[in-house]
Amino acid sequence: MKLLSTGNPKILKGLKQGFNTYILHLAPANLSGYETCPKRTAGCTSACLNTAGRGGMFKKGETTNMIQNARIRKTKMFFEQRQDFMLALKKDIELGIKQSKKLGLIPVFRLNGTSDLAWEKYDMIPGQNVFECFPDIQFYDYTKILGRKVKGIANYHLTFSAADGNDADVYRAIAEGYNVATVFGMKKTEPMPETYSGRTVFNGDDSDLRFLDPKNVVVGLYAKGKAKKDTSGFVKYPTFLMKAA
Ligand code: SF4
Q: 47-63 pLDDT, tens per residue?
């Protein structure tokens, strides 16, 4: 089974900067019967990027599609056949490295495209996690889990994700030096606010390459998929707040 994908519109922006991102999309939340997002909120669960793009296109009367089914199969494989999954992932990463080098691009990997697993905890081969297996390769992710043991992992970059009801975690994440990704409910034609919660906003939709972001910023993202209709508090509306003030 091929586990990694590449080529979504945001990834294509990274190509111009010389980076080729490969993403692992698992089934988020407990869609597969296994929980992959231990700190998910009601808002992020219903607005999850899992439904953005082709993953959210269903034939009339159907509630699933090939993309969703593949994500569920991969997730079940991760939980039920861990060793096979890890070997397949290792092969896919090796292939991605080869392909990218041929193209003159730098391969980078995001393993939580639609999940929030603590990859540092899982062995890829006995005694080594994925970051130790590929020490010269850059990995990056978003997470809502505080306290992950990643400080000593030089090739793994994490951005903390704000959501509905996780403000206390956001403050702790800031204190721990994380950038915080925040989804804004404005049109892509509207500029993002210059600051939010007292911090400079950096447009995170210009590329997906979070490990290149400046430090101590809010990484602003435009709402996509179901998030465009979110009213849970997951999506923030700075324009509305400014107009209402
Ligand atoms: S937004 Fe993130 S944490 Fe929430 S359900 Fe989706 S993948 Fe999981």
A: 888 866 666 676 677 66
209-216 contact pairs (CB < 8 A, 24+): 209/14, 209/17, 209/19, 209/21, 209/108, 209/140, 210/140, 210/142, 210/157, 210/159, 210/179, 210/181, 211/108, 211/138, 211/140, 211/157, 212/17, 213/159, 213/179, 215/177, 215/179, 216/177, 216/179
Residues with CB under 6 A from ligand 1: 28-29, 37, 40, 44-45, 48, 50, 114-116, 144
The ligand 1 atom at the shortest distance from the C-alpha of residue 47 is 1
Q: Whose CA is nearest to atom 5 of ligand 1?
A: 45
Instruction: Report residues of the chain scoring pLDDT below 70.
Output: 1, 51-56, 58-59, 62-63, 239-245
